[in-house]
Amino acid sequence: xxxxxxxxxxxxxxxxxxxxxxxxxxxxxxxxxxxxxxxxxxxxxxxxxxxxxxxxxxxxxxxxxxxxxxxxxxxxxxxxxxxxxxxxxxxxxxxxxxxxxxxxxxxxxxxxxxxxxxxxxxxxxxxxxxxxxxxxxxxxxxxxxxxxxxxxxxxxxxxxxxxxxxxxxxxxxxxxxxxxxxx
Length: 183
Description:
Layout: H1 4-22, H2 39-48, H3 55-58, H4 74-82, E1 88-92, E2 97-100, E3 111-119, E4 129-140, E5 143-149, H5 152-176
Antiparallel strand pairs: 1-2, 2-3, 3-4, 4-5
């Protein structure tokens, strides 16, 4: 006869081993070889990079919510700054898209362009943006041909936006970092 106590222990071991096996046997965490073993240095590095918080910074401040605005997204700001000379037709931060209106350098020109920027991720990397440039050529007011413009302008826009976003991110890190004093 199995006692009730032995049954509980057996079930507990069975459940815990099942949970460990279902997790793949790996425990969450980082590779310790990549980080300094001194905890004070790790804390200092995290705080200087703006990845930590200090309780002393939080005490005595109002407990309002933290709101993320479009201006806090470096890619979004860089995109708007890059095409700021063009009129905007549609801008949707939550949908992740910017569409300009048709733009021409002079009023008498029969050629104009339109730019569409889709945000695929908030990370600053080359595949984060899908940029399309459309070209419209008109022979008369009602006789226009619209086509997608391929080539260098897409890459130039993407490069300019990514470089500007990287600058904004660096500035934000510098602004948010505070030196850590070891007492």
